[in-house]
Amino acid sequence: MSRKEFQLLVSPIKSRVQKLLAETAAFEIGSRENTPWAKTVRTCRQLLKVETALWLFVEVEDVEPTNNSAERAIRPAVLWKKNSFGSQSENGSIFVARMLTVVSSLRSQNRSVLDFIRETITAHRQGFSTPSLVPTAIYFEEREDASVTSNLERKDESTPLVA
What we know:
The protein is mostly helical. Helix content is about 60%, strand content about 0%. It is built from eight helices and no strands. Helix 1 packs across helix 2. The longest helix is centred in the first third of the chain and has 23 residues. The two termini are about 45 Å apart.
């Protein structure tokens, strides 16, 4: 099926969903009403606010219609929390969030987690700037001064260990 055929096929479905959302959102409910119907009306109102995002996968070819990739990305964190019973402090939660970000980012770039952590600790102990989680190609394309520099530049003392 071509993209145009898909868009034509989805068009009446999109119209019907929009109509049902609008009809339901139009019902009057009290500001403090907490019935299942009131929750449904509020949900429809919220969906109408972001309706264009609901159909983005129809218009933009590279947008997936599901959140499977996001679910797969957070699965290791969910499993860690389930198996370890979470952390017991705010600092522990911050550490876990940062480490899970590091692991997820590096794995998505096919980079070694162990090498990155070793390089980070070594650079920090020697007073050098720590390696970036941002892939080099992206990092230097976005910088004004796109000259490639070593990760071993002297770091400013105000630079946080983990951003």
